Amino acid sequence: MPATPRPPLIHPDKSDLSLVAVLHALADPTRLTIVRTLRADPERPCGTFPVTVAPSTLSHHFRVLREAGVIRQRDEGNRRWTTLRLPDLDARFPGLIDTVLASPPDNT
Amino acid sequence: MPATPRPPLIHPDKSDLSLVAVLHALADPTRLTIVRTLRADPERPCGTFPVTVAPSTLSHHFRVLREAGVIRQRDEGNRRWTTLRLPDLDARFPGLIDTVLASPPDNT
């Protein structure tokens, strides 16, 4: 019997990106680590991010980032690949992602 | 009988400012309006901000901004004055406030 298909991934259009939603998505240490990792490495499979949270928590963080339009995800076989939507973000909020990533993270 | 003194206002030190807390504080339309207003006008009394929320809600927003270190407040007589902590914010997170304020707010 084939596996149950995963629900489709929903991504907002570039023109619908919300500053408040993007700031909210960035306002979390785990999500900042995900964004920082993707800024350095354009596409990564889930499970390869340097974070130490439970899988369900990580799924939640990916969903917040995806629904805010910060990341794009696609399923290929058994793997889910994640990219940073930097061109879309930079078009709408110029320099925001790099300014945030240039800021010292907490506890430094 | 004298009025009950207000509780002291607590402000984090510049070195304790947290990127996550600042991003969280900025991730709200009313709080962004407060910050945008203070960026243009250095010190304002409460009650003069162009926001349409209940006083208790506004107090909450000021508290979130104050505890994140985004604003400083002082009481003088019956008025509470608010300033943006731009020098502290720029020292710790260079360019962050102006990059956020240069981004189009939601619904534009």
Widest sheet, order of strands of chain A = 1-3-2
The major sheet of chain A is characterized as: 3 strands, antiparallel
Outline of chain A: globular
Percent strand of chain A: 5-15%
Question: What is the fold's blueprint, element by element?
Answer:
2 copies of one chain form a homodimer.
Chain A: H1 19-26, H2 29-40, E1 43-45, H3 55-67, E2 71-76, E3 79-84, H4 86-92, H5 96-102
Antiparallel strand pairs in A: 1-3, 2-3
Helix pairs in contact in A: 1-3
Can you give a write-up of this model?
- Two copies of one chain form a homodimer.
- The first copy, chain A, is of the alpha+beta class.
- In chain A, helix 1 (19-26) runs antiparallel to helix 3.
- The N and C termini of chain A lie far apart (51 Å).
- Chain A is built from five helices and three strands; from the N terminus they run ααβαββαα.
- A three-stranded antiparallel beta sheet of chain A has the order 1-3-2.
- Chain A has helices spanning 19-26, 29-40, 55-67, 86-92, 96-102, and strands at 43-45, 71-76, 79-84.
- The longest helix of chain A is centred in the middle third of the chain and has 13 residues, at 55-67.
- Chain A binds chain B through residues 18-21, 23-24, 26-29, 32, 92-96, 99-100, 102-106, and chain B through 18-21, 23-24, 26-29, 32, 92-96, 99-100, 102-106.
